[in-house]
Amino acid sequence: MLALPHRRYHLFRAPLAAHETWVEDESFGQSANLVWPDDHVWCLATEIDFGFTLLGCERAVADVVLADPALEAFEVGVDDNMSWSGDAINPAPRRA
């Protein structure tokens, strides 16, 4: 268990194929929040409170992801607004 302010994470060590199985199994209700391989060449972070996933990777990998028309992908910087109000493409969810 990794405890951070306002978050607690269960940590698992497994081959990448285990993450692919997790994502395909809808009974979990949430994909893994953080995926980071042993060689640390990339990191995937899915924010549970917002509708996005961040990928930290080498420039060549980012260029492939950004060029894929099947993905809604764009670069973000450290000063970018990543809250719902900063999303110029997807509307914020309606509150009850």
Chart the SSEs and their pairings:
Blueprint: E1 2-4, E2 7-9, H1 16-24, E3 34-35, E4 43-46, E5 53-56, H2 59-67
Antiparallel strand pairs: 1-2, 3-4, 4-5
Write up what this structure looks like.
Strands 3-4-5 form a 3-stranded antiparallel β-sheet, with no helix packed on it. It has a two-stranded antiparallel ribbon with strand order 1-2. It is globular and about 35 Å long. The mean pLDDT is 82. A hairpin with a 6-residue loop joins strand 4 and strand 5 (53-56). It has 96 residues and is an alpha+beta fold. The chain contains 2 helices and 5 strands.
Describe the structure concisely for a colleague.
This protein is α+β, with helices and mostly antiparallel strands and 96 residues long. The protein contains 2 helices and 5 strands; from the N terminus they run ββαβββα.
